[in-house]
Amino acid sequence: MTSSIMKQRPWVPLLYLLPALIIMFVFIIYPMFNTFVLSFRDKTGTQPASVDCVPNEPCWGNFENYRYALTNPEMTTALRNNAMWLLLMVPGTVIAGLLFAVLADKVRYEALAKSIIFMPMAISFVGAGIIWRFVYAIQSGGGEQIGVLNAVLVGFGVKPVAWLSDPLFNNYALMIVGVWLWAGFCMTILSAALKGVPTEILEAARVDGASEWRVFFNIMVPLIMPTIVVVTTTMVINVLKIFDIVFVLTGGNFGTEVIANRMFKLIVTDTGRSMAIAVLLVLLTIPIMIFNVYRFRQQEAMR
Amino acid sequence: MKPFARLNKFLSKLPVNLVLIALILLWLVPTLGLFITSFRPREDVRTTGWWTIFREQQVVGQVEYETYCASCHGMDGAAIPQANLADPELMNAYARSNRLLVMLKQPLEDDSPHMVDPLLPENVNESLAILSPVHEYIGALSGEETKGSRLTLRNYADALVGYKGTQDYLTDCQEGVESTLVKFKCNISDLLNPEGMGSAFINTLIVAVPSTLLPIFFAAFAAYAFAWMDFKGRQWLFALLVGLQIIPLQMTLVPIARLYADLGLESTFVGIWLFHTGFGLPYAIYLMRNFLGGLPREVFESIYLDGANHWTAFWKLAIPLSMPAIASLGIFQFLWVWNDFLVAKIFLSSKPVLTVQITNLIDPRGANWHILTGAAFLSFIVPMIVFFAFQRYFVRGLLAGSVKG
Looking at B54, B76, B94, which one is the last position of a domain? Predict the structure, then answer.
């Protein structure tokens, strides 16, 4: 990091920093503390959470909202779903992104291919939700299927599936939307990393007779590992906060609830519980936050 | 030898090309389906898939007409002068299919039945089902608008004004349908109807522009201080900023909403501008500081040696040089705000932006796909233009560091 090269009075940096710092304090720091406090209050945010306790039923006193956040069946479903999203959708997206990056690198229409894959990043999640609601649409009466997926099924003589309300499929259907949205993001970042791999190394390996698979797994992947890690952590954060897709496609019904949607649903009706869920969400992101700061400090040390 | 080498090269690349093209098509199909649907008439959307427009279109009712009518009336409907089916005046007398059916069942002047062969089913409903396409076809012969594979812009009109009736906005206005006239004036001012995408578009624009400019403005100053000034706690403060970038939005919604309620900022544009500014700042500062810090030191040294102070260096040097970073940041923040749903839903509920308006239009029974698809595409226009025009800057913004939340 370059250090200052001009002497200045000690209050000068403050003048440059203060507007931004004040805004960030009011809109990020203060609300975080306030949210934390509210998570120990009742529905209206005026009394301690323990007033919601019902005699002869389990109660965690002032941690009552956290009991809800951790044990209520709707919340356990949400936590389980978020875990499933993490386990399936994050690797799915990163692998899809890597696949696109590698494939696009080998063809002449690379820019066009990448634009198309990347395009979903430009539109809103709500818009993407509408796009996919239409893909998954089902005509349960006798009429012709207007959703493309069910039309294909019917074309093969299979019964149409209620993709968004059938608990057997709906979570996976939502995750596919997530992969569709974010694969382009992963591709863009991974592709830039791949371009940074020195071609001499790859050529040398090929001359030595290594197959394309070995070049990919034994040379490329290890070399771009730091980028894969960055992309993965970013996707973990995105998935933890996943909200719009679920809100538009299923509203969190039929067993597709996720943490952020639960939080949104309760925001008006039960502030305390909603805030406890928000705190839970932040706690889940803290490991990534620490990792990012650690990585940043390492980078700075190298500059 | 050479042609074979070429062929071999082509063949070796073939699998890669096939896989990639298949995947690209897979990625395109969902959006393409929505796009095509947005131009299809309501009835078509409800009854057939969007891909059917690629099928060769047979004129509706032609087969039935040939079976039942062509032997007397001829292929063009004009073989019998006194019953010229291509005459619009005659056909207007039989505007509906069931009246057509009645007409067809009537005996002719010499008391022989109108249709001898082939016979229609006895059941009126079944006959009707067969004959209503005939009516369509005769309509086409007599110069009426044909139904079938036509595309329309009416869905966009419906979406823009927020029409929710059973026909479409333009038709209702033409026919003077009561329930529509109560809600709409049927002139240009309907574009600002608060339930429509037109007003939502304007709201979104009012939200997005200041929400993009304000954070860049404040971030530029802070980033300059982080990059070119020395002060105590600089490293520490900046590390904190890196951490703040991924704080979930959800953590701040309720306290800010309460604060706004006290200050009278609920559902105001100022409120949402400030919120987006606050939340955009950590990433904006991070990106701009990395860019400014990466500029050559000598440039700054020379301007300081010439006697410039920080203020001059900031405006004359830092800002002009960091235009690429500002462009990346601007596009990034603009798209983020334009596409945001949660913040707008909570802080600007009475003036819905595009994303919020779309969710207001969703019909759980799926009965208004024609409007929903039009509405979705209206919300895509601006981001698509920005994205394809400035893709380079957008990608650069992504690559410049970790990613905001």
Answer: B54
Same domain membership, residue B165 and residue B129: no
Mean pLDDT of chain A: 90
- According to the CATH classification, is domain A89-258 in 1.10.3720.10? yes
Residues B187 and B201 in one domain: no
Q: Tell which A residues from 126 to 145 touch B, by Cβ distance under 8 Å.
A: 126-127, 130-135, 137, 143-145
**Is B261 part of any domain?**
yes
Could you tell me which of A232, A188, A208, A226 has the C-alpha nearest to residue A91? A232
Nearest to B143 by CA among B69, B90, B74: B90
pLDDT of residue A209 exceeding 80: yes
Instruction: Say whether A285 and B355 touch across the interface (CB within 8 A).
Output: no
Distance CA B333, CA B216 (A): 9
Task: State whether B27 and B172 are in the same domain.
Answer: no
Nearest CA in chain B to A13: B225
Q: For residue B97, name the pLDDT band (cuts at 50, 70, 90).
A: low
Q: What is the mean pLDDT of residues B351-361?
A: 93
Q: Do you find a cis peptide bond into B118, omega within 30 degrees of 0?
A: yes
- Element spanning B152, H or E: none
Q: Which residues pair with A48 in a beta bridge?
A: A41
| Residue B47 reports pLDDT greater than 90 | no
Angle CA A231–A235–A236, to nearest 5: 120
The four Cα atoms B92, B95, B99, B101 give a dihedral, to 10 degrees, of 90
ipTM of model: 0.90
How much is the mean pLDDT over chain B?
84
**Contact at CB, A234 and B383, closer than 8 angstroms:** no
A10 has a chain B CB within 8 A of its CB: yes
In percent, the amount of chain A with pLDDT more than 70 equals 97
Look at residue A247 in the predicted model and tell me its pLDDT: 93
Q: Is residue B285 included in any domain, yes or no?
A: yes
Residues B220 and B351 occupy one common structural domain: yes
Taking CA–CA distances from A108, the nearest residue in chain B reads: B17
* Containing structural domain, residue B178: 154-191
The reply to whether B221 falls in a domain is yes
Token digits for A6?
A: 């001009």
Quick check: A107 contacting B, CB < 8 Å?
yes
Render pLDDT for B63-88 as a digit per residue (tens, 0 to 9).
777 777 777 787 777 777 777 777 77
d(CA B145, CA B41): 13
Break chain A into its structural domains and give their ranges.
Answer: 89-258
Count of domains observed in chain B? 4
List, for residues A59-113, the tens digit of each pLDDT value: 888 888 999 899 999 999 999 999 999 999 999 999 999 999 999 988 999 999 9
Output B143 or B204, whichever has higher pLDDT. B204
Residue of B nearest to A14 (CA): B225
B interface test, pick of A3, A5, A116 with most B CB neighbours within 10 Å: A5
Residue B203 lies in a domain: yes
| Same structural domain, B277 and B128 | no
pTM beyond 0.90, yes or no: no
**Mean pLDDT value of segment B360-385:** 88
Could you tell me if B356 and B213 lie in one domain?
A: yes
Residues B86 and B120 grouped into a single domain: yes
Interface A-B: count of C-beta contacts within 8 A: 288
> Does A202 touch chain B if contact means CB atoms closer than 8 Å?
no
Task: Quote the pLDDT of residue A228.
Answer: 93
Phi-psi region of A250 (alpha: psi -120 to 50; beta: other; left: phi over 0): alpha
Orientation angle between helical segments A271-302 and A64-71, nearest 10 degrees = 80
Same domain flag for B309 and B395: yes
**Per-residue confidence band for B404, with pLDDT thresholds at 50, 70 and 90:** very low
Spatial CA neighbour of B244 closest among B109, B52, B405? B405
pLDDT digits (tens, 9 = 90+) for A163-203: 999 999 999 999 999 999 999 999 999 999 998 889 898 88
